[in-house]
Amino acid sequence: MVAELIRRLANSLAFMAVLFLFLIATLYFVANTGEHLDSFGRSYHWLMFGTVIALGLIGILILASVWRLVVDLQRNVSGSRLSLKLVIMLVVMALLPMTLVYSFSVKFLRSNIDSWFDVEVERALDDALGLSRDSLTVYMRTRQKTTLNIARRLSDTPVELAVVVLNEFGSDSEATELTLIGSDNRIIATTAFSDLVTVAPERPADDLISRARSGSSYLSIDPTDDGDLQVRSVVPVFSSDPADGTAVLYATYPVSRSSSQLAASVQESFRNYRQLAYLRAPLKQSSIATLTLAVFLSLMMAVWVAIYAARRLMVPVHDLVEGTRLVSKGDYTTRLTTSGRDELGYLVQSFNDMTGKIEAARANAASSQRQAENQRAYLELVLSRISTGVITIDENHTIKTSNASAENILRASPAYLQSVSIDAVDSIDNDFVRQFFTSVKPLISSQRDDWSLELELVTDMDRKPVMCRGATIQSSADQHAGHVLVFDDISDVVAAQRNAAWSEVARRLAHEIKNPLTPIQLSAERLQHKYAKKLHGNDASTLKKLTNTIVQQVESMKSMVKAFADYANSPQVDFKLTNLNELITEICWLYRDGDERDAIALDLDASIDTISGDPTRLRQVLHNVIKNAFETVGGDDVRRLSIITRPQPRSDMSCVQMVFEDNGPGFPPELLDRLFEPYVTSKKKGTGLGLAIVKKIVEEHGGVVRAENISIRVDGAPVVTGGRLSVLLPANMQRTQSAENSLLAATSASRPASSSPGSVNNRQSHPDIHGDAA
Amino acid sequence: MPNVINNNLMVPSPLRWNPAWLLAASLILLATTGNCASMRFESAGTYVKDNTYYLDSFARLELGDAPVKALANGVGLYFLVEIAVHKNRRWWIDTPVIERRLRYKLYYYDLTRHYRVENVQTGKSSNYRSLAAALRKLGSLNQFALMPVNKVDIKDSYTASIRVELDRTRLPGPLMAQALVSKDWQLESEVFRWLLN
Hints:
The complex is a heterodimer of chains A (774) and B (197). Chain A folds into six domains: 2-115 and 279-323; 139-274, PAS domain (Beta-Lactamase, 2-Layer Sandwich); 340-384; 386-489, Beta-Lactamase (2-Layer Sandwich), CATH 3.30.450.20; 496-568; 576-761, 2-Layer Sandwich (Heat Shock Protein 90), CATH 3.30.565. In chain A, 54% of the residues lie in helices and 17% in strands.
């Protein structure tokens, strides 16, 4: 509290200015004391007291400031060293000239005061005074004689005539007043000759009268109240008659005004000179004390001003040091208060500008970095979402980055991929990865700017056609910085091409084969009809058998051609509001009636409303799937098929899912990927077009179909207990819909190429391995 | 031949800086004037005449060496006489009835070798051949009209007091600084009190 008060006072310019002004005023008064001797009076005590207090206070404040400076120095506060240097420099700068001036001033003061006094002057004044005295003494003696003459006359004069004598002689004697005092101390006669009329005659002191009676005259010259001089004479008046006793004559004579003034002037000069001579030592002491006080005060002011100036000057420097320290720690928000328009202020302003620019630059850099990060993240997201695999290879032939599709296509983890070195492809144990990089390595090594390659990755279980394009990456300085490989799993493309080919084949078959079949059949029937009657015995039976065979085979070929035609043809889908549950129930009813072994369990969700679809085509889907399932089970096993429908609301459209689960042997894993392709079947008979047609119809409805095996774990090993076919159909599909709105498009867009092994969806349209139920 | 300009004062001649002289002077000072510097009221009293209180007092004033020397060197000395009458109160501080201050100046008049005592307030002065006479005059008050009788209530009790001091604040500046701290210049009497009758 007290320390804080002292600190504040020491730093308060106004307070210190008041103190210093008070001391300067005091000094002024003290310095003037010698000239105006009476100017102080009783206030001198208080002045001295106040001076001591003020000096003490200033001393304490300066000591506190110095102490603070030292403490700052010990604490290594920024700017404290410079402050101390500045203070020392300023104090020394003030001290040196001050000391010089002080020493010379003391010397001059002493010699100057001494020079006021001169022996000659003193002697001259003494002489003047003596001369004045002598002159006055002569005047006094003359008047004494006059008085004695009057006294002599009075001695023979009767008392009654004393007044007459006094008047007679007194008027000639220039006396101011003549008084005759009788032996009984009573005034016998008095007369005044001056203009001033006194009421009561002045009488000399009794001792002077006594002395006069005893014969000793008294003569003196006295200063009066109005500054003039007056001669006073007391003489005895001896009477001729001894019985009368001795009277006393008291006479006063004026000294002329001019003489009085001259004498007074001499007296005053003498007195002043004497006083000055007497006060010489105290004057020197007090002057030197005043000078010392002034110098001391100046020194204190210099010290305080030095500290104050240093502090004021150091404020921006301190701020700058602190600001620089903060900046070095990474805090660029620091802004310093501009202290003024001087160079330091300019420096502070420059510092502020600098930190502002750095902060802006950092913000820009951070923003750019964020943008780059965002762009990189976006790019990564895009790369991770696209079905195309992307791999970048650095100049050391090491995989730098890879996206999810690349990892999925090559069936390798990111870590595994990044550990791969293309220069050592033989050591790669992943078949796909090894085959891929074995194929692309020569092209990478060729340093061709742009190349493409179509290859097929083959394992015992699977084969995957891949289209790969490569390019070298050039850095800004045309430095070779690696390669980028972009590759696609073109299974879909191949499948589509295959589908297209099959469609073409089917169309040609339907067109080319179907037409001759009817004449063949008719011809065979005609043969039988015409020649059966003409032949007998074995010939007849042989003919019948042969023509029957021809007819049957033609029928068979017709049905096959029909199936191909169905597959190839894309009849106009007639979308109607169809109740899927009713449709399923109706179809199943047919099978339930047909064979007791067919146990179809229906789990239909009643909440499913009508969907938009072609009931005829959907009916074919159901027939194909149910037939396929039952044909798969085969043998004496109990056939079981569960048909489940569930609504599948999606964010973009509402869908309906149909799930078919059988208890058959499931789908052979090696055919899973190509299950929906034509002529892919594991059954001995059938065209292999059943599931291909299913897929085609489902896709016409904008849906997707997916096949997978149902497996359970027995003793830790998966055992297939059946097959599952899932069909997902949009609830409100229009024939005129755009491709983008179809479930197929939506699914393929969102498909992260993460279909698990053992499952396949419609994109991988492979023929039904179970055979064709169509 | 009458004894004219009888000067009893020994005007001090400048002392030479001689150790022997200094020692002798010190001894003399100790023996003779060492304790001389004092101011003391020997008597003071009031009486009523013509419905007025009059004061008679006598103080013995003795200056020390330093003031005497200063006087001899042309320095005027100021004396302050403070007279006061207070109404005595039992349970409270006394109330001043009258306070008078008389100022006198004592100086040496070289031309006529007189000591002059000047009443600063009235300007009246008187001349004395000796310092002792001048100090006697300074110390005595005769028939000083203090106050009218009606200033006091006969039923109450009053105390009169008087004191005298050398007014150091009126000394010349260079001397004042020294006089304010020196005991040689600290000349003041104790307050002399008496009951007003």
